[in-house]
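User: For documentation purposes, I need each entry recorded in a consistent format: the amino acid sequence on its own, followed directly by the corresponding structure tokens. There are two entries in this batch. Please keep commentary to a minimum and don't merge the entries.

Assistant: Recorded as requested. Entry 1:
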Amino acid sequence: MQMRLGKGDDSTGVIRTDPTPVTRLTIMTMVEAGDWAVELPRPLILHVGDEVWIEGAAVFVRQPDGDVVRHDGDGFWLCR
């Protein structure tokens, strides 16, 4: 399953998106932000109350208790 975030900012050469709240239980393997995508090596389970964002080729998840977990993947540009 894919998840789409906001376009993100690449003024520094690295795509960064704002944290996006998770509103339902989600299993994802790829996250898109505009023309940039990060594909994860294994499915990631997101829970209600988590926040997710992209920095470069990594997906970050902030859990409701404040812990932040980094999930490294393969980042690539989408040709549309």
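Entry 2:
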Amino acid sequence: MGAGEEVPAVAWRYLAVIAAILLFCLALNIIFWPLTPEQGAMLAPMLLSVLYILRGIQLRPRYMIIGLVLGALCLGGYVFLLPVFWPWMILACGGTLILSGLWLRRL
């Protein structure tokens, strides 16, 4: 079995994980319906931070650091910076993921 045969098997797994995450977020929005827009916006970044933490526990500590920073920035913005929540989430989530991508690239 060559490397070319393993690629399709991995690709569908990644797509299944993405579908499961999207369905999870959708189910949470349906179950806990009267959500404020801010609460709804917290679902995906918090789930993403948990996935980064789990990946860091499994393989590389850098991923765990990224997940902790992302989760802390999102929660801090929700708890302490609610009047400027949307610009904060743009900077916190987008900035964290862009900077972490640059940091991981230097591996």
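Summary note for entry 2:
The two ends are 29 Å apart (CA to CA).
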